[in-house]
Amino acid sequence: MKPNDGQPGLYLHIPFCSAVCPYCDFSVMRVLVSARRRFIDNLVAEVSIAARDWREPRPFDTVYFGGGTPSLLPVEDLACVLDSCRAHLALATPAPWVFLEANPEDVTPEACAAWRGLGVRTLSIGVQSFSDDVLRFLGRRHDAQQARAAVEAAQAAGFNTVSLDLIFGLPGQTAEAWQRDLATAVTLAPGHLSCYQLTIHPFTRFGARLARGQLSEIPEEEKADLFDFTHRFLADAGWPAYEVSNFARSSDQESRHNRKYWDHTPYLGLGPSAHSLAINDECPKGTDQKKLAGIRSRRADVAAARRWWNDLRTPQWERRVAAGERPVEGEELLGPRALATETLMLGLRTTAGIDLDGFTMRYGLDLLAANDALVANLVNEGRLVIRSGPEGRRLVPTLSGLCVADGLAMAFDLPLQR
């Protein structure tokens, strides 16, 4: 995985769903013209409100339209939001890399041409499956034929990267059925694939069915087998993983934006439920500066950070923005231990692993020396490997390690001050 250059990313969460999603917990809105116009006006207003407090001097080199999805909106609405970003925030020149999430039923040659004109370079299509039965179960509006047509239209339009989202681990799904989905995706030859295991959230239609015993998740052992199969199948086909759920045909097809989340590059999130992260002196006005200074003073070369998130309820978010307020629902200050823990957890979710020398330089902790017995055991179990090269030593998860990456990270001891 290529390193980031440190430039921040901008995320715009647009939760316009035509119906309540049965399996995720995103905030949703119905697509009424009046609601759409009000939402866009408030998102434009939030750009200017957030710009007053954003201190990061480097320009945003990625802009990600995500959420519910933005492909339901006319391109004029998206352009209005981008124009506000250019007016109030520093965007990279000549242009940032723009990402757009899209539903297959919205992807037409005409729409692709409009998005290309907007500056979109990566189009991420929420295919989910190429099985009509699975799509009906998931409550999707498109069918398998529309999914294939969407991918073909996007590729013909000339986007730099076409990415497909697929879901596996559904109740009753067989390995053979999942293999057919993967084989279809490989045949279509996108630049990037994201394969997510189904997670059922409590306050959703699927969550309610699960609670009533009308739905059951597949056993953990079957989930692990499907995970292993996914990685092996795609690697053999030419789409090696670079993160637990992400696969790319080449390094230049990897997500420039998502990498920022994995290595603590600053990012600004706008819209309902969007998260943001700022490092050290770039933390926005309003941060508890005394507490932040206390974190930094414990070790001068370790960054302190602040993460905050917007109200996930769209009506409340709108009311606060309309009143000229920042719609922040909560925040947390991250000291050395929290940042080191996240660095470990996120790094072990990638095939690049942990830069051990960089970890020592940043946190003043020799990760291997502090966890020698644990690392030796995990290496013997085939979960981790230690690699040395021109760029130093790395602690890298194997495929069996990636499967339990979060659990691996939690086993490490990080004797750092909070």
Fold blueprint:
Blueprint: E1 9-14, H1 33-51, E2 62-67, H2 75-88, E3 97-102, H3 109-118, E4 120-128, H4 132-138, H5 144-157, E5 161-168, H6 175-188, E6 192-197, H7 205-211, H8 220-237, E7 241-243, E8 246-248, H9 258-262, E9 267-270, E10 275-279, H10 289-297, E11 305-310, H11 314-322, E12 328-334, H12 336-347, E13 354-355, H13 356-363, H14 367-370, H15 372-380, E14 384-389, E15 392-397, H16 399-403, H17 405-410
Parallel strand pairs: 1-2, 1-9, 2-3, 3-4, 4-5, 5-6
Antiparallel strand pairs: 6-8, 7-8, 10-11, 11-12, 13-15, 14-15
Helix pairs in contact: 1-2, 3-5, 6-8
Describe, in plain words, how this protein is organized in 3D:
- The structure is a single chain.
- This protein is an alpha/beta fold and 418 residues long.
- It folds into 2 domains: 9-259, Aldolase class I (TIM Barrel, Alpha-Beta Barrel); 352-410, no CATH class.
- It is 41% helix and 20% strand.
- A 9-stranded mixed beta sheet has the order 7-8-6-5-4-3-2-1-9. A 3-stranded antiparallel beta sheet has the order 10-11-12.
- Helix 3 packs across helix 5 (144-157) and helix 6 (175-188) runs parallel beside helix 8.
